[in-house]
Amino acid sequence: MSELAGPPVPGLTKLWTHDPVTAGPYRLVGRLGAGGQGVVYLGEDDAGDRVAVKMVNVDLSDPRARSQFVKEIAAARRVAPFCTAQVLFAEVDGERPYVVSEFIEGLTLHRHVRERGPVTGNALHRLAVGTVTALAAIHSAGVVHCDLKPDNVVLGQDGPRVIDFGIARALGNTETASSRVMGTTAYMAPERFRDDAIGPPCDVFAWAATIAFAAGGRPPFGSDSLFAVMHRVLHDPPDLPAMPPVLDELIRECLAKDPADRPAAERVLVRLLRQDGRVTEPLRRESLLEVGNETAGAPTPDQPLPQITPTAPQPGATQVPARPTVPTQARPVQPAHLPVQTQPTHLPPTEPGVGAVGGGTSRRLHSEALDAWGISTALFLGSVGAAAGYVASSAVGPAAAVGAVAFVVVYVVRLLVATALGRRSDRG
Length: 428
Ligand SMILES: Nc1ncnc2c1ncn2[C@@H]1O[C@H](COP(=O)(O)OP(=O)(O)O)[C@@H](O)[C@H]1O
Ligand SMILES: [Mg+2]
Hints:
This protein is α+β, with helices and mostly antiparallel strands and 428 residues long.
């Protein structure tokens, strides 16, 4: 293994003899894992910033395959950074195409459940909220994950993150379970086994199966032979573990055999957030995703995540065009893994970060209070007031008092009006 500049990464294994040693500006320092789509390496740049590099098993010499790959990865790059590992760029020239994404340190949900047991109580609520927030963000960018499963959820320090979205589709959306793996059978929706159109509802089904796995330690249609699982997915009701009633009801709806009967990810998120009464009014999508993101991460505002440095393109290589800047989720740090709880607990009414309405107003008030235009207007009208006072009284003292009062009145009235108008535009 090439030497790591940063702290050790649990589970990282040595590079194999024929493994590549670089990918663009990154040194490959070890293997994070391997799945049906290829091998994932840990990459580090000169500054010690880390990324996950997935070398994909795909032949892009066919122009159609190549253009689909480029298109899907470009769409994945547009996904908002809410509970997702951001896709940074992809390299499509050369013999081995690869996709570079944000490295999330932590166990996958699959490994966490295998090693530490099922997730319950608040941790389960946060997991459900975080993963469905990611799904809503993914779907709103026009991307279908197509491979959501416990291996593609990493329990990061700041909450759960969904990884690998869009890659299954980038590798070809005409294939089914009988050819290259495009999803793990136990999490695949019934329409995936037919020749039906695949869309966001297949991710909603996979989300529900993933949460049921987290809560009970087993997928709801079993995990034995491919055909037995496929038969249950197509014909049998799910076998679900005990879960809180709202979650149980949602999971059952999301596992409906007919994709048209499943709620959209955004609806699932609203219902999860509403159950504790903290989102009581319609919110704009962006605000809703923000609340989901904060709920999943249980923020402590003074510990933001480090910024991701945008990567320099490799000379001479064709890359999927980069977004101008990669906005990093300023989501704060919390204990390393979702805690495993044996007794269900209830969310405390004062849990931070979930009060969308109150939190939104104070954020807006804070930003309006520092608004340069508002301050300049108040200063200008304050000076006009002082000048008028001087003309009327010819004395400096009363003129200054009139100016100060005019400044304060203009500043406060503008602040209140701007905050109220901003809150209105945040709704519905
Ligand atoms: N962005 C990432 N951050 C951290 N670890 C990752 C990331 N992407 C992949 N991994 C690790 O690499 C492993 C292999 O990934 P992958 O090839 O997608 O297979 P699978 O999803 O079937 O596990 C994952 O299980 C995970 O441990
Ligand atoms: Mg994966």
